[in-house]
Amino acid sequence: MLAGIGAASFAESTVVPIPIETVLIPVSQLRRDKIWHIATVATLGCIVGALLGYAIGLWVFNLFESHIISLFGDQATFDDIMWRMNTEGFWFIVLAGIAPIPLQLAMIAAGASGYPLGWYLVAIAISRVLRYFGIAWLVLRFGDRAEAMLREYKWKAVTILSGCIVIIWLGRTYLFN
Fold first, then answer.
1. What is the pLDDT of residue 61?
2. What does the pLDDT read at residue 18?
3. Going by C-beta distance under 8 Å and a sequence separation of 6 or more, which residues neighbour residue 35?
4. Cα torsion at 90, 101, 44, 156 (round to 10°)?
5. Which helix (H) or strand (E) holds 66?
6. Average pLDDT of 61-77?
7. φ, ψ for residue 115 (rounded to 5)?
8. Would you state the pLDDT for residue 49?
9. When comparing pLDDT for 170 and 123, which is higher?
10. Which of 57, 48, 52 is nearest to 78 (CA)?
11. pLDDT at 51 over 70
């Protein structure tokens, strides 16, 4: 079961556009005795996937630049993401891991821009720990109602959490520089 969660998390962070919550919540509800293990394996699976996304950006981007840019939508969207990586890298990656921004875009942009790998992994880990351990907490706290609550309050939670991250980023940027 844990290997399947790790593989699903890896796939979700790289190529599968279906959110891992569709698997994570039911499995967590069935195996509450392993809920922290499930959250840990999901986080690790995503981090391994994030390494692949970074490597694609770092090593493959130049070979397939026009094709990869088309995945972003257009040149202007790609340029905006690259600007964000160069000016707000850490917080952009954290937000991409929490907010409904495709994390794959941040992964490729981080590699293509040469963003420091250590900080990249820390940002990915923070965002996914918040996401997956938050789901585990919801399941433990609210049981079978967790899935309905996540559907009902997901956007509010994402907005509040993203707002907190933006406040931290702004505080760090303007108070400590």
1. 80
2. 74
3. 28, 136, 139, 140
4. 100
5. helix 65-72
6. 77
7. -55, 140
8. 94
9. 123
10. 57
11. yes
Show the domain range for 24.
2-175
DSSP 175: H
CA 51 to CA 153: how far, in whole Å? 30
The torsion of the CA quartet 18, 92, 150, 144, rounded to 10 degrees, works out to: 80
DSSP single-letter state for residue 139:
H
In this structure, what token pair is assigned to residue 130?
A: 């918040």
Total of domains in the chain: 1
Of 157 and 97, which is predicted with more confidence?
Answer: 97
85 within 8 A of 92, measured Cβ to Cβ: yes
Per-residue pLDDT at 155 exceeds 70: no
Q: Which two tokens stand for residue 76?
A: 């202007």
Residue 7: both structure tokens together: 């593989």
